[in-house]
Amino acid sequence: MQLTKFTDIGLRVLMHLAAGDPAASYTARGLAEELGVPYAHVAKVVSRLSEIGVVHARRGRSGGLRITDLGRNAGVGWVTRALEGDDPVVDCDGPTPCTLRRGCRLRGVLAAAREAFYASLDTLTVADLSGADGLPDGVLPIPLIPRAEQARDGAATGRRRTPSQPQQNRSR
Length: 172
Ligand code: SF4
Description:
The protein is built from 8 helices and 2 strands; from the N terminus they run αααββααααα. It is mainly alpha-helical. It starts with a helix and ends in a 12-residue tail after the last helix. The protein binds iron/sulfur cluster (SF4).
């Protein structure tokens, strides 16, 4: 099971806000910059996070984005489900319905596995992921990797990969 990019960015935004300086004012553009993801994606994700009440967007000069108490205390599974939506793991009844669907037992097992996945994520809250509890003021628990270092790492990873080394997730 692979999370969508949308959910991945949503969780990154929430973790970053939860671990960040409570006095700082965050914007979608600033978050995009800091997290190294496109602004358009962050803007869409922030809109959804705001819709489910885990992020609050305050307008005006002293405005900005902040994580709400609900967001801090939300289970990671609950947030992930809210971002992923309720689509089944496999689309058995789509435009080309599966011919095995009448007697298929796999369908139920996959649905149960998905519930177990969310339940397992729900053993942690967003605040747990941020690791901010108990740290002195001003100490950020999830430091951002500087952009230059990030670019160097990306380039090194690209250089290390040769045609004989399969990329992760490549189908066989
Ligand atoms: S085999 Fe079962 S789970 Fe897979 S698409 Fe067909 S009905 Fe759905």
